[in-house]
Amino acid sequence: MKKGDHLFLVDGSGFIFRAFHAIPPLNRKSDGLPVNAVSGFCNMLWKLLTDARDTSVGVTPTHFAVIFDYSSKTFRNDLYDKYKANRTAPPEDLIPQFGLIRHATRAFNLPCIEMEGFEADDLIATYARMAEEAGGDVTIVSSDKDLMQLLTPCVSMYDSMKDKQIGIPEVIEKWGVPPAKMIDLQALTGDSTDNVPGIPGIGPKTAAQLLEEFGDLDTLLARAGEIKQVKRRENILANADLARLSRELVTLKTDVPVETPLDALDLHPQDGPKLVAFLKAMEFTSLTRRVAAATDTDADAVETAHVPVEGGAQAHGPDLDKGEAAGTAPAGAPAAEASPETAEEAAKVLRQAPVLPVETGATPQALAQSRAEAFATAPIDRSTYVTIRDVATLQSWIAAAREAGLVAFDTETNSLDAMQADLVGFSLAIADNSRDASGTSIRAAYVPLLHKSGVGDLLGGGLVENQIPDGQAIALLKDLLEDPAVLVVAQNMKYDYLVMKRQGVEIARFDDTMLMSYVSDAGANTHGMDALSEHWLGHQPIPFKDVAGSGKSMVTFDYVDIDRATAYAAEDADVTLRLWHVLKPRLAAKKLVRVYERLERPLVPVLARMEERGISIDRQILSRLSGELAQGAARLEAEIHELAGESFNIGSPKQLGDILFGKMGLPGASKTKTGQWSTSAQVLEDLALSGHDLPRRIVDWRQLTKLKSTYTDALPGFVHPKTGRVHTSYALAATTTGRLSSSEPNLQNIPIRTTEGRKIRTAFISTPGHKLISADYSQIELRVLAHVADIPQLRQAFADGIDIHAMTASEMFGVPVEGMPSEIRRRAKAINFGIIYGISAFGLANQLSIERSEAGDYIKRYFERFPGIRDYMDATKAFARENGYVETIFGRRAHYPDIRSSNPSVRAFNERAAINAPIQGSAADVIRRAMVQMEPALEAAKLSDRCRMLLQVHDELIFEVEDADIDKAIPLIVSVMENAAMPALDMRVPLKVDARAAHNWDEAH
Length: 1005
Hints:
Rossmann fold; Nucleotidyltransferase, domain 5; six-stranded mixed β-sheet; 22 strands
């Protein structure tokens, strides 16, 4: 190696674990061999090699090596027998991939280097020193802080996952010390991952301050008696030997007697046929195609390589860091502050498994795994399903369900609207231990009640014969479903709960498989029954369209042939019961029982009752508003045509694009996949903010026409024919963060910042003798931010009841709160709320109509004034990248698997979402807790019959209350909402609720 050469040293072990956790489980189709880590490793390595010049680190390597850990035992274990003693064994799926990855490295024509007794970091340190002494430059491809001690003007690091260079300035910015002092800093702080002791109680910031004051570790230890803080002084004096030991453990060896000389690390071109042969053996079709094209190789002509699969204890694989295995949160990362599941709660979950026996001492993780394996291979036999047509048979099934204490239940109706659906039939599923003692055999049945024959119905009758009269069947079912000794399992229980409640049946005790999946995997998977069945059971249920048809030929379920209905409906119950067995223990295994039991399941009956109550609307107000909106839209349409110089269909994206970009040549033009000009809302908003009048009028026209079509014209059509009220439907599992959504109609999206939007709210009214109470959390997301990021200024302002936006403006701009100009406060408000959503300088500039540089200065100043917010954001992103999820203050998890995406825009979007999720999700959890606590509080105050909770919209609850009880109801509602976090969590910032009563929603808000 000579001056001017450049050596790339890839931390192969780091690549392995990053790849394994970044790529979902992937198995080779031919034999089921797990290959997700191999796939990720190969793709990362190929990208690094092919993109180095243009898009990665900006240099072309002349020398290249991939360095691996040989095993977990090294010379450091002789120094300290507890070194890395807390690491766990690698996941079973990863073990056979260690050897394959070494084969992959050689297939890439790259040196594959490891050495018994030494860690990969020591080999990297040695080669880096050798290259630097030879006059070359070095790039270490890793983000591991342990390697930062090696950085010099000639040695840098590159984080390929973030596409980020790490040099001396970046180390100083991150750790507060230069690379030369990283050894001493780590000796003081220790490392829980590697079980390096350090000095207890000394964190990175304190360590950096001490090193800045005393210079180095030896001087610090020699002069520790000068430290003014008594506890810190005593701590350092008492643990000085641990610090010295820790320094030995973290210091990388730069003189390892490496077997492969530096000059042997020359980078050679990839051998196309050799690499393609390996990739074909792994069955990586896409990468094979890319490599073949890049290396001018005919993949079809290359024979698939024989790649042996190595087993062995670890296949020379290192132990897995606890953080990598279990998702341990780094210091400062957001975590649930509610106490974790107790042993009693976990045991309770295990006991709720009356079918499959649990061995003594079985852990939740073991049970979850064994259940998943058992039901993934258990066959589903539709031929065993039964149609129940007589009372005696139904009674015997209900008796068996009672005996088991567990039954899956599903309703079949003729409408998706639970408030208008007729109960056409229902299905049951219970364990069939007589057929299979393992507990994986399920027997299921369908009970038809109101199936019709089409011909008969046209003649005025038409019920199919041999169906149990619905009243008689429901009476028998009532005894079962209202029995608190029976656990009723359903998929999307809220729908079935409301359907049955309208039949006079209130299900006493239930579980919901959809919500179990949602709690465990929000953001990672979908939670519909068909998707869950395919994922967990390997079974594809009968599609609804195969039973009821689709399009114009689709019929409601009451016209489906009973035999076909039985196959479909009984299968739903069968699958649901199997999913329960798989998903229930996962809650305990992932320590999420508390989230399910306290935030999800209790909300089901609460929402069902709210949906049943509905709310009144004034049709005359809506009719008048429709007319006003139509006039406003017509006026804008005329102005738009005048500005455009011609008439055109404003609602046509093609015609609009041709006017804006084809005829007028406005900037910012881009085309969609179909080749049309993009006229999205963002495109038009950007043009409008740039001062273009026509796009602004179009944005306003779209707003008015949407309000008219979505609300003023549509809302009367949602009025229930019997109740005369509007009944929205809430979805619990529709968002990643835990926020509820509503549909039919969607009441969450009525704009409240426009005059027209507020006018729509005036149409939501109370009935005579009542008023609506709107109780709204004040700035709850900012309060949550102040709590989780622990911002002293914000906490104090909220505690003192100070105007938070004015306080922020005063902190940032040095303007007194008294007499503050409204424009200054408005800018601070935009930044306050923008920070929560990860706003960029570009976005803030658009929002405030200022230069991007000025907006960037605002954001920079904001983080300088409130450094805890930046720390929170950095810690949250790091935690999300490491674990794939973030947590709310109550332990809810929101998964963002794409946060590790190689696509910068996708990655950035997921980072912003991950930062926001703990804030928005915690606020959503608070209002969920308030809703669950509200009804018992109203009942205790003897107000439940006269004060009824009707709607939840974002951070607001709407009640209908008798006039005489308003003064009693408002303080009670406010108290429940403001104390909703208790007793699980005593927030550092007080919650505040504003509540008012009026005849319509707008006046009450």
